[in-house]
């Protein structure tokens, strides 16, 4: 026990420490061994069920339920994400003068750090910065970013390859990209028409 003196030199005992909350083991589901055929089904149930699930590997150590969160993404994952960009059409895009970096990152399903990196690598990306240093993307910047995203994610150019492509085809690159976008919209319309027949 700790004792301390107060201002009037009397001995007082320190208050007892607060008890540490204990984990209720009955709330946890039983551990699942990796390598069993039912692991995928259990992981799907774990995302649906209310209680936390403990997954252990063959040595008895815990295994994270989230896979692939760190490091580079596979080509298949990048292809799936490149199809999920949500950039609005030009008439909606040009209604606002500026978009925050978070809003632009949400449109392209990218990290803000990747957008800042692309800004340093590509000369055509020049978002405005306020005194605080916040980036504000104009609609023209978003269109250029859409072109860069197409070159890097869909056509699988490297950063250096995309830079040289943009230098060689300054005005033609944007026109070719606009033509590709229109043809993809036409293809989508024709596929919907075919499905409706």
- Biggest sheet features: 3 strands, antiparallel
β content, as a range? Answer: 5-15%
| Helix/strand order, N-terminal first | EEEHEHHEHHEEHHH
Rounded radius of gyration (Å): 27 Å
Instruction: Based on Cα principal axes, name the global outline.
Output: elongated
Output the number of helix runs. 8
Describe the structure.
- This protein has 197 residues and is mainly alpha-helical.
- The chain has eight helices and seven strands.
- Strands 5-7-6 form a three-stranded antiparallel sheet. Strands 1-2 form a two-stranded antiparallel sheet.
- The longest helix has 27 residues, at 170-196.
- The radius of gyration is 27 Å and the shape is elongated.
- 9% of the residues are buried.
- Mean pLDDT is 75; it is low at 45-57.
Summarize, please.
By secondary structure, this protein is mainly alpha-helical. It has helices at 39-48, 75-82, 90-93, 101-108, 112-121, 139-154, 159-168, 170-196; strands at residues 3-5, 11-13, 32-33, 55-56, 99-100, 128-129, 135-137.
